[in-house]
Amino acid sequence: MTKPNFQQMPLEQLRTYILEHRNDDEAFYVYIDRRRAQSPKQIPMTIEEAEADLQRRFGQQAS
Question: Is 51 helix (H, G, I), strand (E, B) or coil?
Answer without folding.
Answer: helix
